Structure formats: C-alpha cells, structure tokens
C-alpha cells in the first residue's frame, strides 16, 4: 500500500520471466498499471485492512465532482474490469471507456488505475462487501 502511495505503478514477482518484465515496463510507460495476478489478492487485502469505516470528506467531495458515468467507470476499474469488459457491460465503445478513465484520473489527480482502485476503496465508492 505504501508503495502505491509512493508512486508505484506495478507489481511483479522477482521470478517473473524477462519477457513479462519488458511487457510490464512498456505497459507502465504507456500510462497503465501492472499487477501480477498473485499479488492482486495481497494488495487488496492490505487495502481492505486500511480502509477507514468513515468516508474521508475530501475524497467524498472529489467523488462528487465526477459524472454518474465516470463513477460507474471508476467502480468498474476497482472491480478489476478491463477497458473491453467495461465497454461491453456499459454498452459503450472501448474508446469511450478510455476517455472516461482519462477524465476520472484527471479529475481526481490520480496517475493510473492502481491509484484509482485505492481511491475507490478509500472514498467509499467500493467497499469490501460490494467489490
């Protein structure tokens, strides 16, 4: 969790094959985040342990600045859905999803999807029972 707050945009295991590391570097360079499947559960467990029961008023105000569709997209990101999955479930194009993701990140001052997931939990948009 501290790594995400400090700016980490990805997590790989140290025994990841070189081609996975190279792909991860390219992905992060392109502005996305990378999480090794085996680390996702641990990251979420840590996140859930740190989520305060009360919603931070600053986060709540920031969340209120999003449109209803942007909140839907943020919630979908927090559920771990890809852009293609979000597009299919919201019946929009992948390009529209990318636009919404970019808008969410910009409005909330977030760098990537990992920080968006953290924000979604910390703001109360997504809770452990609704993830």
From TrEMBL:
InterPro entries: Sig_transdc_resp-reg_C-effctor, Sig_transdc_resp-reg_receiver, Tscrpt_reg_LuxR_C, WalR-like. Keywords: DNA-binding, Transcription, Transcription regulation. It comes from Kribbella solani. Residues 59-124 form the HTH luxR-type domain. Pfam families: GerE. Residues 1-29 form the Response regulatory domain. This is DNA-binding NarL/FixJ family response regulator. Transmembrane segments: none annotated. One of its GO terms (molecular function) is DNA binding. PROSITE patterns: HTH_LUXR_1, HTH_LUXR_2, RESPONSE_REGULATORY. GO terms for biological process: phosphorelay signal transduction system; regulation of DNA-templated transcription. The lineage of its organism: Bacteria, Bacillati, Actinomycetota, Actinomycetes, Propionibacteriales. Coiled coil: none annotated.
